[in-house]
Amino acid sequence: MGKAGKWGRGGSLHGPFVALPHYLLKSPAWRSLSSVERCSFLEVLYRYNGHNNGRIAISARILAAEVHISRTTATRALSRLCGCGFLEVIRPGSFSCKFKRAAEYRVTHLRCDATGVVPSKAFLRWRQVDAALDKTFGSAYLP
């Protein structure tokens, strides 16, 4: 009988982890992201616990503190991730005297736990366009 290793039968990884499928890593949208945007996506995925997709709350201020970037860079990274189709905004954030609510996001390569919607994988339909024509940092979502 063979010995079960760290990855083999009988053994398993211990603790939570973030899985990135190969089709996501090979997509042109992923390859177009900067390192800050990739780290920001990993931080959003880190907040996914297996049953809160569609209710992943993260603000630009929290993201900036976690990734060690400025708040405006974090805002740009979240907007770019939404523009490329990796994230969808479910509930926009608000900041007023009475309420300070972070935006709630849905990761598009996973099933939405809030509504039960199947994964849209919108990043697979993303196409690069001329940055001079597009105001969203050279990205376009083409259905």
Characterise this structure.
With 143 residues, the protein is of the alpha+beta class. It has 5 helices and 7 strands. The strands form 3 sheets. A 3-stranded antiparallel β-sheet has the order 1-5-2. It has a two-stranded antiparallel ribbon with strand order 3-4. A hairpin with a 4-residue loop joins strand 3 and strand 4. Helix 4 packs across helix 5. The longest helix has 14 residues, at 71-84. The chain starts with 21 loop residues before the first helix and ends with a strand.
Keyword list:
143 residues; 15% strand
Helix content: 25-40%
| Overall morphology | globular
Strand residue percentage:
5-15%
> How much is the radius of gyration in Å?
17 Å
Q: How many β-strand runs?
A: 7
Structural class assignment: alpha+beta
Q: Mean pLDDT score, rounded?
A: 84
Across the major sheet, the strand order is 1-5-2
Order of helices and strands: HHHEHHEEEEEE
Main β-sheet description: 3 strands, antiparallel
Instruction: State the end-to-end distance.
Output: 52 Å
